[in-house]
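Hello again,

I reread your note about wanting to compare the complex against the isolated chains. To keep things tidy I'm splitting this into two emails, and this first one only covers the full assembly. Below are the input lines as submitted, including protein chains and any nucleic acid or small-molecule components. They are followed by the predicted structure of everything together. The single-chain runs will come separately.
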Amino acid sequence: MQSFYRLYSIASSMKTGLVLLFLIGITAAVGSSVFPGNFYQIPVFKLLLMLLLVNMILCTFNRIKLTFRVLLKRFGRRVWYRQLGIFTLHLGIILVLVGGLIYSVSGQNDRIHLLAGDRVDIAKVLDIRHPFTLQLDEFRIEFNEDGSPSQYISEVTVLENGQVTDQIAISVNHPLNYQGVKAYQTSFGYLVKAAYIAENGENKEGRFFEGEWLDPDGTNRRVRIYKYIPNFNPAYGMRSVTLRPDNPHIVFSVYENDKLLGIGAAKLNEPAQIDENVYVTFTGVEPYTILEVKSDPGLPLVLIGGCALMLGVCLAMLATPRRKKNMV
Amino acid sequence: METLMDIFIYVVLFCYFASALLYWGGGKFHNSMAAKAALGLAILGCILHLAILVMRTALIGVLPLTNGLEFLLSFSWVTVLLYLLMQTRYPIQPAAGAVMLISALLVSLVVILMRDQLSAVAPLMPALKSPWLTVHVITAAVAYAAFALAAGLAAVQFFPAGQSIKDDHIYLLVGGGFVLLSLSIVLGAIWAEQAWGRYWSWDPKETWALITWIIYAIYLHIYRSRDWPGTTTRWMVIIGFALVLFTFFGVNYLLPGLHSYA
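Full-complex prediction:
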């Protein structure tokens, strides 16, 4: 029994908490330099965070008695605010850590690619209680005068059982929030449309992802549709001058028997010769949006915790008892 | 206006360096004229520094808090302003030379690393278009300034002239800086949740901001408990500011991530 109390007092002490904080700081500093990108997935690091959570719960629990004693007695307003602030701030950190834990256990996220007109059943992407369908009506990029992007916008319709229940423009900083599912504007891409005529005069048209292969009839040469460049300038190479389609080109390469014959940049709607009498015309592009969909049951807890942390830290510090004799 | 900003930045740099020199020299020879001149130069520099920030605001149409240059300009200005305000109430004058030197070095980094950006205008990228930008960055800038000032005070405590600096004044600054850093981190997390879809990504800037938050949190706990000698806490305040500078420069220039706007 005595050893249990000893263990409890060590586990709940502020000193242990500070040592854990210190270790977390050191691990994060070393980790972010040695394994940037994924050091936070190292088991030791996760363990430290868990131990900190346990320590803070015990430490704050132990302080409840003290906090209430101070709050109920008349120690002066400053002491009162300070105690309340310290308590709220630590409670806030606990809630943030618990919320983060909930996400790591039951949070879900995935990326969806949508062309205009596409529909996706969110229940097939995330395991959710309230199924609904997301339909992309339009994806567009708005530009500043200098050609840099000013906003990426996905106009979407939300449907339940075929009935429209919501319409919203998802853009960067303005996610969709529907029945506990959030969808964020994350990225985008293009499908390249290509028309090619074979020797027999037959027209073919197809849509291709960047990097896909096209096999025109009448030749054993293959075309690799490498990249769409909205504002092409040979001096910039494969980089687009801006994202605005001021001079749209398709960069492609031609292969024969797995041997690279050459690389070209074709203007949209201008036929590019692949072989004698074999041409490919890139007729346009179709943008698709990439949305990150997420369900995080821990999010409300993290938000409440973050607000409690902010409120608590302000109360605790602004109400620091003045020690007149030292302060002059 | 662009030329004026260019001229002003050099004048500000001169004022801060000259002020720092006069404070050091004047302090050594107990020359009150030198101290007065140093204070005058610091005030003049601070006013011209503000003028640069105002011109920059006029140039870009929003508060100058949108890239590395503007952050450095704002944070070094708040450092000087905070010192000038604080020395009217508290006897922290022995640290004036150190604080002005820190400010002068920060401004000289603007001149050395980013002078060509001073008159450059670029529209905000979509992720930065948010009302959270202003509060997230202002709180960070003022927090950094408080930590800079605290580090200046802690550093002069190691010299005989700085013996009169009170630990409680450093504690006050670190406490205030800690409140603002906490606000900045939480507000940034709320913003990140909206913009990137996750409130915490362990992006280098987030990780290093957390590391600085941790060292100051430890300082505040052990300072209150008074178990540790003053030299240890002084070193923590200095190391804390070194980490703050690494969070700004190191992460912007060495460890690219989501926060690569500079």
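For quick reference: The first helix of chain B runs from residue 2 to 28.

B.
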